[in-house]
Amino acid sequence: MTDAGFGIDHLPYGAVVDAQGRQFAAVRFGDDVLDLSQLDAELFAGGGLDRFLAGGHPVWREVRGAVTDALRAERFPLVPLHSVRPVLAFEVADYVDFYASEHHAANAGRIFRPDSPALPPSWRHQPIGYYGRASALCVSGTDIRRPSGQVRVDDTVRYVPSERLDFEAELAFVVGAPSTPGEPVRTADADEHVFGVCLLNDWSARDIQRFETVPLGPFLGKSFATSIAAWITPLDALAGARVASPQDPAPLPHLQDSATPHGLDLHLEVRLNGEVVSTPGFADMYWTYAQMLAHLTSNGSSVRTGDVFASGTVSGPDPAQRGCLLELTWNGTQPLVLGDGSQREWLHDGDVVAISAHSGSIALGEVTGRIRAAR
Amino acid sequence: MTDAGFGIDHLPYGAVVDAQGRQFAAVRFGDDVLDLSQLDAELFAGGGLDRFLAGGHPVWREVRGAVTDALRAERFPLVPLHSVRPVLAFEVADYVDFYASEHHAANAGRIFRPDSPALPPSWRHQPIGYYGRASALCVSGTDIRRPSGQVRVDDTVRYVPSERLDFEAELAFVVGAPSTPGEPVRTADADEHVFGVCLLNDWSARDIQRFETVPLGPFLGKSFATSIAAWITPLDALAGARVASPQDPAPLPHLQDSATPHGLDLHLEVRLNGEVVSTPGFADMYWTYAQMLAHLTSNGSSVRTGDVFASGTVSGPDPAQRGCLLELTWNGTQPLVLGDGSQREWLHDGDVVAISAHSGSIALGEVTGRIRAAR
Q1: Are B78 and B33 in contact (CB under 8 A)?
Q2: Which of A173, B133, B270, B303 could form a disulfide with B278 if both were Cys (CB 3.0 to 4.6 A apart)?
């Protein structure tokens, strides 16, 4: 029995296509996958996780128990991971990106708005965020085409391939059970709705973003591609990773985290062409996913099965823990020097970015992507 | 044969539920509707327009011809409009809101950023916009619950019902045929993808919006509800409404409108509790829907069946043509005085907002909503 982060205590979910072109929902176990349709053909019909996600916590717990038993009893044949290709495992409904790292938000503020306070006025009061393009979400391993867009250089506006392409290391939360329209989700109830987590790379074209962003926020600088890991780790596998994330000052009552805390002690690692360039810790995030969900629904909005909300760039207090090139190179002014002697202000064509994370014996599914030249 | 804006030259599409609870896709004709499943049971299976929209322009044109013939020949029994209830006619994929009225953008700039130029730096270069919550879209007639959210009053932040609830009169564009991922849609090809238009009310809580909006743009101040009309007018019915919308300075080549212009000469009317409070003209918009679509896809993003993009508030040069209370009352400083002597800085509970529009003999389906008290 193999392990390496994907042992019997983990069991993340995804969807894959085999060599014959058949798609099926799967659980990853070591270097193999289990075809979930063998366990429950109806729940996993269609080769995706949509029905399973919609089932809610009782279904998630029951299936996790059944999968564990089946693997222990070696009840079904397993399929080698290398023989299948991952695909998006569920239909993405709405996608929201938060901005929940104080270190990232303060660094971005210092870079983009040097004449204003580093943190926006509402930042410590609520986890601010924005809606992104749901159809931009693509599975790990998908090549990322360098986007073109309008940028301003020396007072001239041009439509050109982005010259400031960046990654952002983030953690995404996948909503399973919908919430009731009009009723805010309490932080204590977050785990009734959030099924699990996966790593996310919020690819960002800083030059496009910079020109377009006032006053309506990120738009085409983000919407060209957002990669998510192939494997979704259920929250039930992360009980040992929970930590408190206290806020100072305390937020208003509806945003205070519950007695069961929703911070997660995950150690991220960002590799650029195989070389580690950043090691942010998710425990350093200011806002928890329960607070993000409570805020998201505090105006009466409800969440649906397949909603994804992401943390925003995960950055820690140390310069080696910054989760994007914007911060790592301080907006391109302090290039990274890689092991081969080359420098990076921003991503080059052909660069491969891989984000991984672990917590104790659990390794989250990696999210990777290679930059292709502009069209 | 009745007409009043819904004659044989119009024939907008929707979905309705009858007294027996059966949902069907329908065309509105005068004060009746035609059950489209009688025409093509397969194309309109499920009681919605999704397959029909995905079919693209050849299918839209063929069905429009067949519907016209069937109505002329009185081939099928019609169903009285008053006996059915409209529902959302298609599954909303991604939702984008633009900011394409120069008058609105300049007024908003003067109000919110008095120390900066009225128009943001990129405004004349590209139709800027932001992604919104797709699941917030609801059909005309749905009550609108006043949202609660964080607002700052006198340096104190509170979570309270919005006291600055507003409407925004907009026109929405419904995407039928998807575009190819990675390939920008040329303005000349817009009508291969955009099926039709409907009125949209982008309800906005100005106090929530104001506190949250820096630096990521509108979020919870908008995401609680967005109403769209029940009836989608095909672009094929609006050939007579087309006008040029020249930009000065000319935009970059990929955003220049095609020889067939995509401006639309529609006359909007906003009524508050039955009283006309604004009459914006859509011909005054700066950017056309073809330019919005070209911009939206200029970074490689593709659009899907069910994508909706909206114009942003439609405001004209005259103060009586301002499409939201923010402008009409100049951020609450110049209240509207209604016929009953009451004043409105912002919407009161019980207020009904109705937005209608016409072009020649065609009346767009109205979008209405009544404000309910906060939860």
Answers
A1: yes
A2: B270
Task: Check residues A312 and B246 and name the one with the higher pLDDT.
Answer: A312
**Which residue's entry shows tokens 């030259």?**
B9
Residue A330 tokens, joined: 């301080």
What number is the average pLDDT over the span B235-248? 95
Share of chain B above pLDDT 70, in %: 99
Non-local CB neighbours of A349 within 8 Å, separated by 6+ positions: A146, A371, A372, A373
Q: Which of residues 41-100 of B touch A (CB under 8 A)?
A: 93-94, 99
Phi, psi of A310 (to 5 degrees): -115, 160
User: How many Å from the N-terminal Cα to the C-terminal Cα in chain B?
Assistant: 45
| Interface residue B369 vs chain A (CB under 8 A) | no
**pLDDT of residue B229 exceeding 50:** yes
The amino acid at residue A71 is L
User: B127: distance to nearest CA of chain A, Å?
Assistant: 9
Angstrom distance (rounded) from CA B283 to CA B321: 12
What does the block give as tokens for B173? 């564009």
The Cα B258–Cα B197 span in angstroms is 19
Find, among A311, A316, A145, A129, the residue nearest to A228 by Cα.
A311
ipTM score assigned to the predicted complex: 0.97
Q: Does A150 touch chain B (CB under 8 A)?
A: yes
DSSP symbol at B235? G
CA distance B59 to B69: 15
Q: Residues in chain A with pLDDT < 50?
A: 1-2
Average pLDDT over residues B188-200: 98
Q: Which residues of A163-177 are buried (b: 16+ CB within 10 A; e: fewer)?
A: bbbbbbbbbbbbbbb
State the DSSP H helix or E strand holding residue A210, giving kind and residue range, or none if neither.
helix A206-212
Whether B135 sits inside 8 A of A252 (CB atoms) is no
> Which one of B158, B218, B298 has the shortest CB-CB distance to A149?
B298
Give which of A138, A198, A203, A140 is closest to A173, Cα–Cα. Answer: A198
Token pair 């599975």 is at which residue?
Answer: A139
Mapped onto helix, strand or coil, the DSSP state of residue B192 is: helix
**How many other C-beta atoms can be found within 10 angstroms of the C-beta atom of residue B57?**
17
Contact: B224, A126; criterion CB under 8 Å: no
Cα A90 → chain centroid? 15
- Could you tell me the pLDDT band of residue B1, with boundaries at 50, 70 and 90? very low
Q: Are A206 and A219 in contact (CB under 8 A)?
A: no
Contacts (Cβ under 8 Å, ≥6 apart) of B333: none
Q: From residue B351, how far is each of B244, B273, B344, B369, B373 by CA, in Å?
A: 36, 6, 10, 8, 10
So what's the pLDDT on residue B2? 45
pTM: 0.98
**Is B130 an 8 Å CB contact of chain A?**
yes
Q: Is B125 in contact with A150 (Cβ distance < 8 A)?
A: yes
Q: Which residues, at least 6 apart from A260, have a Cβ–Cβ distance to it below 8 Å?
A: A188, A191, A242
Total residue length of chain B: 375
pLDDT digits (tens, 9 = 90+) for B266-291: 999 999 999 999 999 999 999 999 99
Query: Any catalytic annotation for residue A295?
Result: no
